[in-house]
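Dear H.,

Thanks for agreeing to be a second pair of eyes. The structure we're designing against is below in token form, covering all 681 positions.
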């Protein structure tokens, strides 16, 4: 109580003068008194003026008791930030570095405590490590005295918070080996601080190898099983520092690291759970460890964590499930272990969190790739979450929603009576996305569902043609391909053929016939073939200059036989229109058709011949067909084993024979063929 009065009376100045005298006992008493004055907050400001003299006394190791009192006073003053910085500026840490041979426990305690206090300031950490203070710190950390070891380790942990100190700590001080050993101490205070220092030091990836070589995992597992809350937190932090490095995963799993890590994530402490869960998520991302992770309880732990009330834990857990769901061997177990419930709950959760929604959507999409899951997902009510998630303004989330719909619609059991008008509208909206993968997968979904006649009519009624026709002009090849695929299936229904053309699809389809990509050309031609079966659409193809690319396609069978076949089928349909019959011949389609009719593929030859048959129905084409050599394919068709082909050939020959100028060539060629036994008389 009398400290303030003494200080106000000038006691500090008097004591400073006493520190300067040569009498040992006087200096001791002065240092002792200043130490007492430094205990009270209100007197520290006065005692601070003695810092230079206390540092000077701290150098006098021959007066060990006096040094101890001086260091103790400095340690107490060091609780003030500005004083700590001043002490390091005045080289106190260098003075402490000379204490390496001091064996007095009290002096060691004060020195360790003083280093711990000084290292609380960020600016002091690198200077401390740059001096022999580093060696003193690590030597004292191995002391048998718990208090000495604890404070020295505290100083080490503080310094290790600065990454600039890591190289010196690891290389010059061999700190990682020492810390790994001390983490196995039977004293909680020691292994608590050792684990904190280790956690900080592992912030530099180069120290990971040193930790593993020092048998650090064994120490880590022991600390993780501690009942001390701080030890548990430090252990979770160490795991969190190690697991982003894929090279560490094999060692962690091989030595049994999943068990203590799963134990940490089950503690009812959010700070510990977050770090442990993040470490588990990192391990789950490793493709080589996914199955082991799931089998050893990681899958169940993540599903349980996804139910937690803390959103950060939900995000991490769903992120881990997302990684696991990439493995084909785990997609089904996620559903069997009850993972859909928390995923659906998180999908509908308010308020919205984009990260959480992204993890959930990707996980659902991944699990939907499994055929068995596709049925279970629908039965468990996946459409509600997907419809909700698709409304989120996020390209990634919408792309995953679209992917999920594509997978679900690929299963035949989901194609009839499963998708409602709500789902259809969601899919059509996704198909209108400017993002390639989102629109592509939505178009795939429409195409998958279009194999059912009922769906073909319903989807067109609900407005699927607008986004599909728009995708025909997309800059992305995949969008063009799957939009054309969906349209060709929709056009299989006669009721949709005119609607596709009325929606503006014809021009885009004709343009895609010239695509450099065979798949795109094929689907465009397949759609045109179906669309041109409708009489009202046939003249419109000529109006949009559609004949030229079709004729070009039948003349290039080397590029794609399938494309040539569908081009011939399309021309066959178009040639049922009298006006088109003339246009096809005038645009030089006759020669490639006659050439194609002799193709080794019977289907290609058949449709080319059928087209010639249709062209022969127009009287203006009869002479040009015979002059161009069209009799040969017709006679070949007449010998076909298929009645409809024979009928078409007979009708064509009849039509050609109606022209008087063709009768003699027909008779001559027929007799020549008969003589050669090529066709029956």
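And this is the sequence the design step returned. I haven't edited it by hand at all.
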């Amino acid at each position: 109580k009398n400290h303030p009065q003494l200080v106000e009376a000038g006691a500090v100045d008097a004591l400073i003068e006493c520190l300067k005298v040569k009498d040992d006992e006087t200096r001791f008493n002065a240092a002792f008194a200043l130490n007492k004055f430094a205990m009270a907050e209100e007197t520290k400001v006065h005692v601070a003026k003695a810092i230079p003299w206390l540092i000077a006394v701290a150098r006098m190791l021959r007066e060990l008791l006096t040094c101890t009192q001086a260091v103790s006073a400095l340690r107490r003053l060091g609780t003030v930030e500005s004083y700590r910085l001043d002490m390091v500026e005045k080289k106190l840490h260098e003075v402490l570095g000379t204490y390496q041979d001091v064996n007095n426990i009290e002096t060691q305690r004060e020195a360790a405590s003083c280093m711990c206090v000084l290292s609380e300031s960020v600016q002091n950490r690198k200077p401390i490590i740059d001096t022999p203070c580093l060696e003193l710190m690590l030597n004292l950390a191995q002391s048998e005295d718990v208090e000495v070891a604890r404070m020295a380790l505290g100083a080490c942990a503080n310094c290790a918070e600065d990454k600039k100190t890591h190289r010196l700590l690891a290389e010059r001080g061999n700190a990682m080996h020492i810390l790994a050993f001390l983490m196995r101490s039977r004293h909680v205070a020691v292994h608590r601080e050792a684990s904190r220092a280790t956690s900080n030091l592992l912030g530099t990836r180069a120290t990971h190898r040193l930790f593993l070589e020092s048998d650090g995992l064994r120490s880590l597992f022991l600390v993780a099983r501690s009942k001390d809350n701080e030890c548990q937190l430090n252990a979770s932090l160490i795991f969190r520092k190690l697991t982003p490095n894929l090279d560490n995963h094999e060692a962690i799993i091989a030595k049994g690291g999943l068990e203590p890590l799963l134990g940490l994530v089950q503690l009812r402490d959010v700070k510990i759970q977050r770090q442990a869960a993040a470490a588990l998520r990192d391990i789950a991302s490793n493709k080589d460890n996914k199955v082991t992770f799931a089998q050893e309880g990681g899958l169940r732990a993540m599903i349980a964590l996804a139910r937690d009330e803390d959103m950060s834990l939900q995000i991490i857990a769903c992120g881990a499930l997302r990684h696991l769901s990439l493995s084909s061997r785990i997609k089904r177990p996620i559903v069997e272990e009850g993972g859909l419930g928390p995923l659906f709950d998180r999908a509908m959760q308010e308020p919205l969190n984009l990260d959480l929604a992204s993890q959930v959507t990707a996980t659902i999409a991944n699990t939907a790739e499994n055929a068995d899951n596709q049925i279970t997902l629908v039965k468990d009510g996946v459409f509600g979450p997907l419809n909700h998630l698709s409304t989120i303004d996020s390209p990634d989330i919408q792309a995953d929603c679209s992917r999920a719909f594509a997978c679900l619609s690929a299963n035949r059991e989901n194609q009839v009576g499963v998708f409602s008008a709500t789902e259809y509208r969601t899919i059509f909206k996704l198909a209108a996305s400017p993002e390639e993968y989102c629109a592509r997968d939505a178009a795939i979904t429409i195409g998958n569902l279009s194999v059912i006649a009922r769906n073909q009519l319903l989807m067109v009624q609900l407005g699927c043609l607008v986004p599909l026709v728009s995708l025909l002009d997309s800059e992305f090849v995949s969008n063009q391909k799957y939009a054309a695929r969906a349209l060709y299936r929709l056009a299989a229904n006669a009721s949709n053929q005119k609607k596709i053309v009325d929606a503006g699809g014809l021009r885009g389809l004709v343009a895609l016939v010239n695509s450099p990509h065979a798949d795109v050309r094929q689907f465009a031609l397949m759609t045109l073939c179906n669309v041109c079966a409708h009489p009202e659409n046939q003249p419109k193809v000529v109006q949009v200059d559609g004949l030229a690319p079709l004729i070009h396609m039948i003349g290039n069978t080397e590029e794609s036989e399938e494309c040539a076949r569908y081009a011939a089928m399309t021309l066959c349909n178009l040639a049922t229109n009298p006006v088109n019959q003339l246009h096809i011949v005038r645009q030089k389609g006759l020669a490639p058709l006659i050439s194609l009719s002799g193709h080794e593929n019977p289907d290609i030859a058949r449709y080319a011949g059928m087209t010639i048959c249709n062209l022969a129905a127009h009287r203006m084409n009869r002479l040009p067909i015979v002059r161009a050599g069209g009799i040969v394919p017709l006679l070949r068709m007449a010998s076909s084993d298929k009645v409809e082909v024979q009928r078409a050939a007979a009708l064509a020959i009849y039509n050609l024979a109606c022209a008087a100028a063709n009768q003699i060539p027909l008779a001559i060629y027929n007799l020549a063929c008969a003589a050669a036994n090529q066709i029956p008389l």
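Two observations from my side: The radius of gyration is 42 Å. The CA atoms of residues 96 and 111 lie 7 Å apart.

Warmly,
E.
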